[in-house]
């Protein structure tokens, strides 16, 4: 069986360089590939195009790449928790493409499936649809959206095996599955890495065919983006 295990994040990110396009899993701070992001910061790669639901917070997640001005363009659905993102966008330092969450997910899934483009009603008649081809299906207008073309996907899973099979946990699944196999190289970091064949086939969410490299992450902070607690009585 093919062994896709990398001994460290350094090995897993070999080939990363300036001017690349990355897909990064996660929703808010839930299920983000913390180790991969921290390594990208350390590598100091520049002029990146990053596709992710959002841009983390000022001092964590993709916010760290923004702090060092490593991101040239951000393709996201929601960016309301990052003051530095807002500042760079309003000042014109950062190019931003905002798209509906469902469209973001489908552009990933289309790339994963080898589908170059698809029609969706989401965004028709708004700024999202400006300049895009449109067609009417069953009396409803749709716009043409293209699959992402990315160099690397960085995803986070709960468990994985050395063959690249992945299991996600709870809401940390979010955008991670559709980003697997949606780039030329998919790098998966996992909390628990097992020998190939150790996972129950009926519990696997993403088969190893969609993953090229896998490594065991460490020192996960798993921050809570918005913590709300009940007041003491």
Detailed description of the structure:
The chain has a single domain, classed as Glutaconate Coenzyme A-transferase, CATH 3.40.1080. It has 6 helices and 11 strands. It has helices spanning 9-12, 34-43, 63-67, 83-91, 101-113, 176-179, and strands spanning 21-24, 48-51, 71-76, 95-98, 117-120, 134-137, 140-146, 150-161, 166-167, 183-194, 213-216. Strands 1, 2, 3, 4, 8, 9, 10 and 11 form an 8-stranded mixed sheet that branches. The chain has a 3-stranded antiparallel sheet with strand order 5-7-6. A hairpin with a 4-residue loop joins strand 8 and strand 9. The radius of gyration is 18 Å and the shape is globular.
Which keywords apply here?
single chain; 233 residues; alpha/beta; Glutaconate Coenzyme A-transferase; eight-stranded mixed sheet; 6 helices; 11 strands; globular; CoA_trans_fam_I
Summarize the structure.
This is 3-oxoacid CoA-transferase, A subunit. This protein is of the alpha/beta class and 233 residues long.
Number of strands: 11
Low-confidence stretches: none
| Order of H and E elements | HEHEHEHEHEEEEEHEE
Name the structural class. Answer: alpha/beta
First-to-last CA distance: 58 Å
CATH architecture: 3-Layer(aba) Sandwich
Largest sheet: 8 strands, mixed
Average pLDDT works out at: 95
Instruction: Indicate the radius of gyration in whole angstroms.
Output: 18 Å
Q: What is the overall shape? A: globular
* Name of the CATH class: Alpha Beta
Find the CATH topology.
Glutaconate Coenzyme A-transferase
How large a portion of the residues is in β-strands, by DSSP E? 25-35%
Number of domains: 1
The CATH H-level homologous superfamily: Glutaconate Coenzyme A-transferase
The helix fraction, in percent, is: 10-25%
